[in-house]
Amino acid sequence: MSVYNLMRTGVSGMGAQSNRLGTVADNIANARTTGYKRASTEFAALVLDNHGTNYASGGVESKTRYAISQKGTLEYSASGYDLAINGQGFFMVGDAEGRVSLTRAGAFVPLEDGTLMNTAGFRLMGYPIANGNTGAVINGTAGLEAVNIRSVTLVSEPSTEGVMTTNLDVNEGIVAAGSLPSDNVAGSTFTHTSSLKAYDSVGREVILDVYYTKTAANQWEVAVFDRDDAAPGGGFPYAAAPLSTQTLTFDPTTGALDAGSFTDITIPVPNGSSLVIDLSATTEKGTGYTVLDAEVNGSEPAAIESVEFADDGIIYAVYENGARSAIYRIPLANVASPDRLKPESGTVFSITAESGDLQIGFPGEGALGTIFSGALESSNVDLASELTTMIESQRNYTANSKVFQTGSELLEVLVNLKR
C-alpha cells in the first residue's frame, strides 16, 4: 500500500469514528428529551476498483440510522395534557406555517387562546367533531386543525326527560267537572300542586306548574301549565291553555297505577323540546300528598371547566354544570417504514420517499395503539450502551489517528531520502 493510500485510509477511519462520536453525543444530550429516538452510525466498506499492480485502498462509509420505531418507556406525570401512545402510531402536529409532521413527544400545554402546543412549539392536530362526525380523511391531512380547547362556545342542554314520583291522598274529595285545572277558569280547583324547573333550547329556565286533581274514585287529572302564563299574583286563569293534560287511574287494592293507566306525560316546553315525565311510580295511598322524586334533565349555559382525553382519542369538554360533550378526536398516523422517516428539529419527523406514504387512523385501530393521558414517552436512549459505544469509538479513533500518523512519518522519511 502506498503512503498516500495509508494516510487516506486513516483519515477515512477517523472521519467515520468522528460521525459515530457525534451521534453518541447527541444521544447522551437527549437522554431526557421526551419522545427522542436514538441515532446510531453504521459502517460499510468503501472498495475502489483496482487495476494493474498498484492497490488502491478504499475506506469506510458511514450511515446514520434512527431507531424511530423503538418505543421508549412511559413515565406518568401530574398533567392531564401530557399524552403518550401505547402502540406504533404518531401524533400529528403542525408548525406556525401549517406544515404537518409526526411526533411521539406529547408534552402539550394550553396557550392563552386555548391551543394545545408541545414544548417544541408544535400544535396538536385533530378533527373537530360536529354532530358526532369527524369528517376524517384516511390518506391525507385535509380536515385537520389545531386543537383548541377554548374555542367551543357556551353550551346548554334542553330538557327532554324527567321523572316525578308522588303519593296522592286517596282520602281526598272529588272535584266537580267545569272547575278543573284543565278548564282554566278563575274558579279552577285542584287537589295537589308542585312545580318543576326545566330548560328551553337556549338554556333559559321554564317553571312548570303541575296540578293533580281527583276527578273520580281512583282517578286523577294531571295538568301542566307554564308559570309565565299565570294570572297576576299566580294561579288561574292562565293566559294560555295547559301545555299538557293526562289521566291517571289506580288499582284500589294496591294503590299503584292500574294496567290500563297512562304512565307518563309529554310536555312541549315553550321554545324547547318535548319533555317526557315518567309518572309510573305514582301511588294513591291513605296518607298525605308526598313528593318522593322529581328530576328533569337539561342545563343552563355553561363554559368549559376542563377537558378529558379518552384512550380512543376523543377529547371531551367538561362544563361548569357537569355536562360533557365530544369536541375533537385526535388521529394517529404511521408509515410503512418508520425508521426511514426524516428527523427534524423539535423531535418531529417528516415523510420521505423511503418511509412510505402517510396512513391515518384513530387510536384503537390496528397497531396504532391507544392514547394515555397524564403520561409521556421517554427517550429510547440507553445511557450505559451509549457510554460503551463512546469508549469503543474513542479507541477506534485513536487507532485510526495512529495509522494517519504512521503514514505521515513514512512520508517524512521518503522526503528526507530524496535530500
UniProtKB/TrEMBL annotation:
Broad class of where this protein is predominantly found: other
Domain of life: Bacteria
Segments forming domain Flagellar basal body rod protein N-terminal: 7-37
Keywords: Bacterial flagellum, Cell projection, Cilium, Flagellum
Family matches, as Pfam families: Flg_bb_rod, Flg_bbr_C, FlgE_D2, LlgE_F_G_D1
Residue intervals of the Flagellar basal-body/hook protein C-terminal domain: 373-417
Position of the signal peptide: none
Compartments where found: Bacterial flagellum basal body
All residue ranges annotated as the Flagellar hook protein FlgE/F/G-like D1 domain in the record: 84-135
NCBIfam families, A to Z: FlgEFG_subfam
Stated role: A flexible structure which links the flagellar filament to the drive apparatus in the basal body.
Name of the molecule in the record: Flagellar hook protein FlgE
